[in-house]
Amino acid sequence: MTRTGATLVGATAILMWAGLATLTRFAGAVPPLELTGFSFLIGGTLGAIVCLMRRGSPFLSLNNWRAWTVGVGGLFFYHVTYFAAMSLAPPMEVSLIAYLWPLLIVVLSALLPGERLKVHHVFGVVLGFAGAALVISKGNFGEIGQNLTLGHGLAFLCALIWGLYSVLSRKLAQVPTDAVAGFCLATGVLAFIAHAASEPTVWPDGTGQWLAILMLGVFPVGLAFFTWDFGVKRGDIMVLGAASYLSPMLSAITLVASGIASFSLSLALACILIMCGAVVAAKDMIFKKPI
Q1: CA atoms 202, 203, 208, 212: torsion sign
Q2: pLDDT at 291 over 50
Q3: Which of 37, 87, 135, 254 has its CA 20 to 30 A from that of 64?
């Protein structure tokens, strides 16, 4: 496959992730750990079937503890935190705050050895967090303290976890994409163990909620990880990084189109600020001159 084709494959993950908030809401009152377990066992099982259909795909024989730690840890903690946030705060607000992760990836990368935090990184952070503050305050900054909930705090934590996961994953470029199947299966098993120890079991109520969970596992919590990994390793990572800044807007459009959230000027402005913050912070990458 050409580099352009691999980039297009990776871009499909951004489209699938746009539906994460909507499908999570449609999944009903299933507890966070239980929902994580269902989703990842579905996604991991489908991935494992595809891997086993190909010759020489030892996705469970990966002998790299760092890869397992980063892969399972990132997937597990991000999604448990995300599903918990969605149950504690309005979905649009959680989605937009969680989508600070493209911005945080740039900032965290700038803190790595040999890199330097620059003025435009700081300005990007200011824009992004201004958007998050606008989301929480609903346009009235004087009420931000009254509107702030645990769900908002968990959404911020989501952004930080995925930012760290993405930066750490850069050092694991040699790990094959097939390994994602093993990461997903391990995440699902770990989630169900934690669920059994700490949560009541709430079965999905009706066909609609089961279908939402199935679609979660197949697309944003399944196929998306494989296509993103493939695109990042074989396509143009700079193009994919820039395209990921559209994620807040795509998620917002999906939530409004599905009737879960209502359009408002303050939410639209917040979405623009978060996107602009990520673009400004990534200025060096986006506008880098070819050598």
Answers
A1: positive
A2: no
A3: 37
Residue found under tokens 């459009």: 253
Q: Residue 45 pLDDT more than 50?
A: yes
Task: Give the phi and the psi of residue 28 in degrees, each rounded to 5.
Answer: 80, -145
Distance from C-alpha of 103 to C-alpha of 136, rounded to nearest angstrom: 18
Nearby residues of 124 by Cβ (< 8 Å), 6 or more positions away:
103, 106, 107, 276, 277, 278, 279, 280, 281, 282, 283
Is 264 part of any domain? yes
Q: Which tokens hold the place of 115?
A: 């890199």
Does pLDDT of 274 surpass 60? yes
Q: Quick one: pLDDT band at residue 110, thresholds 50, 70, 90?
A: confident
User: pLDDT: is 208 or 142 the higher one?
Assistant: 208
Domain count, the chain: 1
Assigned token pair, 212 = 């939402």
What integer pLDDT is reported at residue 144 of this predicted model?
A: 77
- Is 32 part of any domain? yes
What angle do helix axes 91-98 and 150-169 make, rounded to 10 degrees?
Answer: 30
Tell which wins on pLDDT, 27 or 146: 27
Residue 290 lies in a domain: no
- Per-range mean pLDDT, top range of 72-86, 121-135, 237-251: 72-86
Helix, strand, coil percentages (3-state) for the chain, rounded to 5, are 75, 0, 25
